[in-house]
Structures are given as structure tokens and as C-alpha cells.
Design brief:
8 helices; mainly alpha; about 0% strand; about 220 residues; about 55% helix
């Protein structure tokens, strides 16, 4: 599937220059059990959703057709669940970890569950991109299918799986995807590694936190 031109970037720029916030810019406080600030993280996650649209055909257009709508919608919906809790209880929700623990004290878990699914979606994205970077000749569709099997698929119902599987087939050709990232390949490679490394680190931290007894419901 080819992608029509063209996302516009500054001269010599890349998709990363268009982000409101990058995962690289999300601070992790190692002195406080790797606390991750809620606002920064949600802004970075929202910026990531443009990967499924601006780079791959403008948000829901990018990863091709309407087939990728459920991927984007799922991520945006889970961001909203976390943000709604943050806006309702800002003092208790300065970090993602404190948001979850304080919500669970109330015997509710709407935002906590939203964060769980958001992390799964981010894990899916990061694994797909990392897999593709490690196999330069592999098409994106194969990398996304591999990542889906490893991340989201075990948690999806038999009705949802075909929808997401169809989305994997809507992934654009790698050469078209890379053309939408910008025209400076060296900069793209450097920025991708930094951004992906930061995303992977935060996903690891949150998965470890969510595996703890006190973060479950």
C-alpha cells in the first residue's frame, strides 16, 4: 500500500520535529521508584498516535486505510480514561503510579485499566518498530503482525482479533513509511533510536509496576 504525499516538515526535519512531546522528554524519577509524570507521559502518548495518521497517512490515514481506526481509537480512548482521572484528582495523580494506587484505594479501576491497555498498545508499537529495525529487509506488516502476536493478541477476544489482524495488513510499504519520516535518513535513524529507547524504558517500568500486587484489582 502506497502513501500519498505528503506530510510537511521543516527543511531537513523529521516526523519527530512535529511531536508536541517525545518520550525522550518524559522524565523518570529513579529516586522515587521510577515515577513517571502523568501529564508528560500522556502528551507523549498522544503524539505517538500521529504515527498512525500523519506518517502513515495522517493518523488514521497513515497506517493506511480505515482498517487502522481501531488501533488509534483504542489508544486515544485509554489516554482519555487516564486523563479524566487526572483532571478529577490532580493532586493524587501527578505520576502514573500514584494515580493508579490512589484510584484503587477507592475500589475503582477505570483509569488503571485504561493505563493497562495503553501500555499494552505502546508495547505493541515499540515491539513492532524494534523488530523492524533489527530486520531491515522485513516489511512493516510482518513486524506489526509479530508484535501483535506477542502483545495485544493474547488479551483480545475472538471478535476483536480479526479486526486488528486486518489492520496489520493495512500497514504501508516500508519505503513509503520511511519517505514520510523525513528526507534526512541519518537524522531519522538517530532520532528513532532515541525515541524508541525512551518508549521501551517507560513501557518496561510500567509493566513491572502493573505486575505488582498493589497495582492490581
Amino acid at each position: 500500500m502506497s502513501i500519498p504525499a505528503n506530510a510537511s516538515y521543516p527543511a531537513g526535519g523529521t516526523w519527530f520535529d512535529t511531536l508536541r512531546r517525545s518520550f525522550v522528554d518524559v522524565p523518570v524519577d529513579s529516586s522515587k521508584d521510577n515515577a513517571i509524570p502523568t501529564t508528560h507521559f500522556l502528551e507523549a502518548a498522544e503524539s505517538l498516535t500521529t504515527l498512525f495518521g500523519q506518517i502513515l497517512m495522517r493518523l488514521l490515514d497513515v497506517l493506511g486505510s480505515l482498517a487502522f481506526t481501531p488501533v488509534k481509537s483504542d489508544m486515544i480512548g485509554n489516554i482519555k480514561k487516564v486523563r479524566d482521572r487526572q483532571l478529577a484528582f490532580p493532586v493524587e495523580s501527578e505520576t502514573l503510579q500514584s494515580l493508579v494506587l490512589n484510584e484503587l484505594k477507592t475500589k475503582k479501576h477505570t483509569a488503571s485499566e485504561g493505563l493497562l491497555w495503553l501500555v499494552r498498545g505502546l508495547d505493541f508499537t515499540s515491539q513492532a518498530l524494534r523488530h523492524n529495525l533489527s530486520l531491515p529487509s522485513e516489511e512493516l506488516s510482518a513486524s506489526f503482525r509479530h508484535a501483535y502476536t506477542q502483545t495485544l493478541k493474547p488479551h483480545h477476544s475472538f471478535m476483536v482479533k480479526p479486526v486488528f489482524s486486518a489492520a496489520m495488513s493495512a500497514t504501508p510499504y516500508k519505503k513509503d513509511f520511511m519517505a514520510k519520516m523525513g528526507d534526512n535518513q541519518s537524522k531519522i535513524d538517530t532520532e528513532t533510536e532515541k525515541w524508541l529507547g525512551a518508549l521501551e524504558k517507560q513501557v518496561r517500568i510500567l509493566k513491572e509496576f502493573q505486575s505488582r500486587k498493589e497495582a492490581k484489582w
